[in-house]
Amino acid sequence: MSPPNRPVVRTGRGAASNPEGRFESTRSEAIDDGWGSLDEPLPPLQTTVRPDPARSIISRNKSPDIPFDQSINPYRGCEHGCIYCYARPSHGYLNLSPGLDFETRLFYKQDAAQLLEAELAARSYRCSPITIGANTDPYQPIEREYRVTRSIIEVLGRHRHPFSIITKSNMIERDVDLLAPLAQDNLVLALVSVTTLSGDLKRTLEPRTASPAARLRAIRTLSAAGVPVGVMVAPVIPVLTDAEMEKILAAAAQAGARSAGYVVLRLPFEVKDLFREWLQQHEPLKAQHVMSRMQAMRGGRDYDSAWGTRQRGQGEYAQLLNMRFHAACRKYGLRTGERFVHNTTLFQPPVSGPQQLHLL
Hints:
The chain is α/β, with parallel strands linked by helices and 360 residues long. The chain is built from eleven helices and ten strands.
């Protein structure tokens, strides 16, 4: 009997399957029951959005290779559908799949602004730059309706709190009216991630993100408004996107980017299997070469989570990428390595509780 010929690639979705998360005790597998059910067209896959009753909004980390210790993620899951997203395994904590569930079953922090006000007002709080979007994209499509990210920026701006934003979306242009005044006091840094300049590759690799041209336009808009903006060449995928590094940096610099960084593809937990599945569906002739290069940078494994090397890799190929990156940044006048210095001196904590009135 020939293997079932069921279509597994859904238009506009990154993952081809919906495997159980690593915390689940059971597994399910579709089998042919003889009635042709595996050959039936897959039903439309709709995005669902539910509120996330969070108790706090600021996440903290002590990772030595991350240049910030505070972050905010307005959403859980991400409709952008980037197949390589290192945040996919986090859906396992919700008893959901890192596959299609991650990009279709989304959650928004409905009380984000109020929670942030309360945390900034705490007597124990010490001002430190906050990064918005360190896990999932703060400007994914549902932000148009739910506007959680904008509400967070409004709170941070009102209290003169420094922050950075990381995104793959040109929707950040919508909030230039908030960002530009804050940029005058060094309170904000925008980072736009550009993975590839190929529209064809983007459509399968990160299907619901903004086009490469739209991201470059966002860099241009931010720069023209006086908002310091950098480009993240992330992730760099061997064989598929690594040859574009210099072109991406050149285009970003021409658009007005002032700084640049890069991150090599990371494949933690379930992501490695989802990415291999994507390769077989979309780039079968390159699949073995891609993974061979990946393993050469990861000590023979698909992934190595060691601090200091997880974002850059090791070995000759990783060293070559690093040399190319810095050479291109020097050529195009992009800063590397040095951190943006946020202004923390203007922070004005929210007023909480009854206040003593002035006598005069």
